[in-house]
Design goal:
Strand content: 25-35%
Distance between the termini: 21 Å
Strand order of the largest sheet: 6-7-8-3-9-10
Helix content: 10-25%
Radius of gyration: 24 Å
Shape: elongated
Number of helices: 9
Largest sheet: 6 strands, mixed
């Protein structure tokens, strides 16, 4: 697996639709915490681009810089093909939606949603048609005359979303849109966002700390580490092939096994000797992999690469996993495996294990220019939701 420094530029060679949003070398904020540096990415019409990262990585700073709510120190922000870098927020054709729905308490739902159109001088007949259509899209067509204090939490979120999209902005910027919601309401609002994004072909940029939300909502995910964009990829590619150990840790990939690479193609570790899928620099290395990369077998199975002892079963709503201790000459290691092929496991049972190397990332222990950043990032990742997609 190819590794890269978090300071390397992010290039995406795949053909793309015309950009609704183009961010080029944007630097915003100041100091060592909360700022972002040299950020470059594009978002097409109808695309959902999700930004994840630990607290203090610069996610909200970046979103507010795109919206024009804070100044950029360098770089450009283009929306719909026009440079909006130095324009006021109201002239950017971008709407920033805070995680807490902010509605005018003295206006009913209809007038709250109509407000952006009235400010723009849109005719009354068109206002009524557009407000009615967008309220229907967010399942609030029967709530036009209600005041915000009479709405449920989910209804207030939908009303705020309707107001954000009624003027058909070029880009919709959502800052932690689901963070304050309980699980049931979270799923409801998530589906509402996805539904209106498809219907109106919105270019969405979403900031979240929750990996499940990111995986479920994104066409592509951008990983922001230490103020820089470390990797951009579709969810499946990102979770399967993080480009650095720092990214793997941020994505809550639980298993890290130290080993040694010989001849660039064979890795020896407490889990045995395994062939690598791609040539890797010789020397000490770390394998990182998710629980579903391990196949559980009978201890005597010929295909088993090593054996271990079950020490704990972990029951979760989406997936049950097992902790397995593997003895080694240096010190025992513990790994987490998904229970798929051997459901009848008990603590103390000896099992065989086999790694699917297509799902394993291998990183040299020392990556150029990244050791200091790795230490800094590792200390921050506890702030990110530990529940990745399964």
């Amino acid at each position: 697996m190819k590794s890269s420094s978090i300071d390397a530029p992010i290039l995406d060679p795949r053909p793309r639709r015309p950009a609704a949003l183009r961010v080029t070398d944007v630097t915003a904020g100041h100091g060592d915490h909360g700022g972002c540096r040299d950020i470059t990415f594009e978002v097409s019409d109808g695309e959902r681009f999700v930004i994840v990262g630990p607290s203090g990585a610069g996610k909200t700073t970046l979103l507010r810089a795109i919206a024009g709510l804070i100044p950029t120190v360098g770089g450009t922000v283009e929306i719909a093909g026009h440079d909006r870098t130095n324009l006021a927020p109201e002239r950017r054709d971008a709407v920033y939606l805070h995680q807490t729905p902010l509605l005018f308490p003295h206006l009913n739902v209809f007038d709250n949603v109509a407000f952006p159109l009235r400010v723009r001088g849109v005719a009354a007949d068109e206002i009524r048609a557009r407000v009615s259509a967008v309220l229907d899209s967010v399942q609030l067509d029967g709530f036009m005359t209600r005041r915000p204090h009479t709405l449920s939490g989910g209804q207030r979120h939908r009303a705020a979303l309707a107001r954000a999209i009624v003027a058909h902005p070029g880009v919709l910027l959502l800052d932690e849109p689901l963070s304050s919601l309980d699980p049931a309401l979270r799923a409801d609002i998530r589906q509402t966002i996805l539904g209106v994004a498809r219907e109106y072909q919105l270019a969405l940029v979403i900031v979240t700390h929750d990996l499940d939300d990111a995986a479920l909502m994104a066409d592509r995910i951008g990983v922001l580490l230490d103020g820089r964009m470390a990797q951009i990829a579709p969810p499946a590619e990102l979770f399967a092939h993080p480009e650095s150990l720092a990214i793997a840790r941020l994505l809550a990939i639980p298993n890290e096994v130290a080993g040694h690479v010989d001849d660039g193609c064979m890795l020896t570790s407490p889990m045995g000797k395994v062939p690598l899928k791609a040539k890797t620099a010789c020397g000490d290395a770390i394998m990182a992999f998710r629980p579903d990369a391990i196949q559980l077998l009978a201890a005597t199975a010929p295909a088993a690469q090593c054996t271990g002892v079950v020490v704990e079963l972990r029951y979760r709503p989406q997936q049950t996993t097992v902790l397995i201790r593997i003895e080694s000459q240096a010190a025992p290691i513990t790994i987490e495996a998904a229970i798929v092929t051997m459901p009848s496991l008990t603590v103390g049972m000896v099992v065989g294990l086999r790694l699917d190397m297509d799902r394993v990332s291998v990183f040299p222990v020392l990556q150029p220019d990244s050791s200091e950043a790795l230490r800094s990032i590792a200390s921050q990742t506890s702030a990110l939701s530990p529940a990745g997609p399964s």
